[in-house]
Design a protein that fits this description.
The complex is a heterodimer.
Chain A lengths: L6 E3 L3 H25 L4 H6 L1 H8 L12 H36 L14 H15 L12 H25 L6 H29 L5 H8 L3 E3 H7 L1 H10 L15
Helix pairs in contact in A: 1-4, 3-4, 6-7, 9-10
Chain B lengths: L2 E6 L8 H18 L3 H6 L9 E7 L6 E7 L8 H5 L5 E3 L5 E3 L9 H5 L6 E3 L4 E3 L5 H4 L6 H5 L5 E5 H19 L3 E4 L13 E6 L15 H51 L1
Parallel strand pairs in B: 1-10
Antiparallel strand pairs in B: 1-8, 2-3, 4-5, 6-7, 9-10
The chains are: A mainly alpha, B alpha+beta.
Chain lengths: ~260, ~270
């Protein structure tokens, strides 16, 4: 960081690359997993029968083919399962180096509590969220607010659970029936958790007030220094203290929480 | 008309003729449906052809123990969880009530096994599909009886229209109770619980032995119930989150509108000055 640089690196290239790839993986996981999770999404399963029909060459595409409705759904689900498993393999291959690099820098993770732990700190953080998203003010926070930290921890746990249970389901003959059934429940529970949190994540990421962070993630990873100073005062102070630079006078947060 | 099978554990000789007949019938079906020659069908082991699986169990403590044979077979539940949960729609209910897996539509995901409270469907590693008793629906719909019923020498297996079979069952348990002095039940005659409802294959057994015959008082799989609850919870949770986001978006939009109005007002006042 220069003495007073224009931008501050919020997300490294590895983080941005991983985030963007996970976004694609999630799309494939969701559209191929939903028809297996619930019969309410069978229509997605039937959709996957179109390439099956097309590649099979035996039946005209999108017309009354030789397949019955059930066979069409069945064929589509087989295609979906294959895509789901290939995506899982790519996801794991992509995730391992990312996790290794992140674990090397575990001490610098910005998702630990800022100064204190416990219910009081959590309550303060939640109050901060209210100020931020309802009163549209700023509070003194680090790189992430408490909602983002809870989201990050939930995702870490849920993704770990869904990966491990997915491994069991992919090689289910190697495990007892009890483990298989439990894994199926864990897989579904993790997916539901991830799904609900993703909706919140998408909504908040697209809010105008969070646009600089959105741009940072999908462009060069940099946040304007002035934005960091006003919106992430604690993070800015930490950065300047570490580099031995006198911070510019921080704009006073509208609300002190 | 509902078609019922009934197994009577008291009349049963444990000769396993039913099991042999079931396997033989399925080997014949192989010739009919898959073009497997009869010679090959009868000479190979074909474990997948056995839809009735006997389990010999010792009940009580030696020397006062006794043996009984429980049969593992599909019970063609009224609320068949396999049929409800099969993502491929590969399981159907025939007009006479038999719950049948359609092998050409089965994708081998084993959901049926995971949700069946009696652990009946078997995954066949060779075919990559699940299989279970089909209630000989093809025979029944052609006016015949299931193969196992035809083979039973002691009429421990009977089948037919629901009212006739249940009337016969009631007569039998009245006789057994009177002569043997124990309490007998027709398991599956009435709704057992919400998960399975009534059964299409009922069983006569002494009430105190019911569990040994796998005639569970509350057949259910905790993981299946939890997963169903989870799906419902997920749908409600997602709907709440979307509704909350929509409300917050409207709130944000209204606030922004106020802000713009205030800015315009300030600009106008400055211009007037």
């Amino acid at each position: 960081m220069n003495e007073h640089p224009e931008t501050i690196v919020a997300f490294t290239q590895l983080q941005r690359s991983y985030h963007n790839h996970v976004l694609h993986y999630m799309i494939f996981f969701i559209i191929t997993g939903l028809p297996l999770l619930s019969t309410s999404f069978s229509f997605i399963g039937s959709f996957f029968a179109i390439p099956y029909d097309f590649l099979g060459g035996a039946y005209p595409v999108l017309s009354a083919s030789g397949l019955t409705d059930n066979e069409r759904l069945s064929a589509g689900l087989q295609v979906a399962r294959v895509i789901h498993r290939i995506t899982a393999l790519l996801f794991v291959v992509h995730t391992i180096p990312f996790v290794v690099v992140q674990l090397i820098h575990v001490r610098s993770w910005a998702i630990w509590p800022e100064d204190s732990w416990g219910p009081a700190a959590l309550f303060r953080g939640i109050k901060g969220l209210w100020v931020n998203y309802v009163c549209f003010g700023h509070v003194r926070i680090g790189k992430f607010n408490v909602g983002q930290k809870l989201f990050a921890w939930t995702m870490i746990l849920a993704v770990t659970a869904i990966t491990l249970s997915g491994f069991v389901l992919m090689f289910r003959d190697q495990f007892s029936e009890g483990v298989q059934e439990f894994s199926r429940f864990v897989h579904a529970a993790s997916f539901v958790t991830i799904g609900v949190f993703l909706i919140v994540h998408l909504y908040l990421a697209l809010l105008p007030m969070n646009r600089p962070s959105l741009y940072a993630m999908f462009r060069d990873g940099g946040l304007p220094t002035d934005y960091v100073r006003s919106h992430h005062a604690l993070w800015y102070e930490n950065l300047t203290r570490k580099k031995g630079i006198d911070p510019k006078p921080a704009e006073k947060a509208e609300h002190s929480v | 008309m509902r078609y019922l099978n009934m197994y009577d554990s008291i009349s049963c000789l444990n000769c396993l003729a039913c099991m042999s007949a079931c396997s033989m019938e399925n080997r014949m079906r192989l010739e009919r449906d898959a073009g497997v020659s009869i010679e090959r069908g009868v000479n190979e082991y074909l474990p997948g052809s056995y839809y009735l699986r006997p389990w010999r169990r010792e009940v009580g403590k030696y020397p006062d123990s006794r043996f009984l044979v429980a049969f593992e077979h599909c019970r063609h539940c009224e609320n068949a969880q396999c049929l409800i949960h099969c993502p491929a729609g590969a399981i159907e209910r025939r007009p006479m009530g038999q719950v049948v897996i359609n092998p050409s539509a089965c994708i081998g995901c084993r959901t049926c096994r995971d949700v069946c409270p009696f652990d009946i469907p078997i995954y066949d590693n060779q075919t990559g599909k699940a299989r279970k008793c089909i209630g000989c629906y093809d025979r029944v719909e052609s006016g015949m009886q299931p193969a196992c019923v035809t083979a039973c020498p002691s009429r421990a297996l009977i089948s037919g229209p629901e009212d006739i079979v249940l009337a016969e069952g009631e007569d039998r348990i009245a006789i057994y109770s009177k002569r043997l002095g124990r309490d007998y039940i027709i398991y599956g005659k009435d709704k057992i619980n919400r998960v399975v409802g009534r059964l299409g294959w009922v069983s006569i057994a002494a009430r105190e032995d019911a569990e040994y015959y796998d005639l569970f008082a509350r057949p259910a799989k905790a993981t299946m119930i939890a997963r169903d609850g989870l799906k419902m919870g997920g749908a409600v949770g997602a709907a709440c989150v979307v509704a909350g986001a929509a409300l917050h978006g409207l709130y944000l939009f209204a606030k922004r509108k106020d802000q713009v109005k205030a800015d315009e007002h300030d600009t106008k006042e400055n211009a007037d000055e």
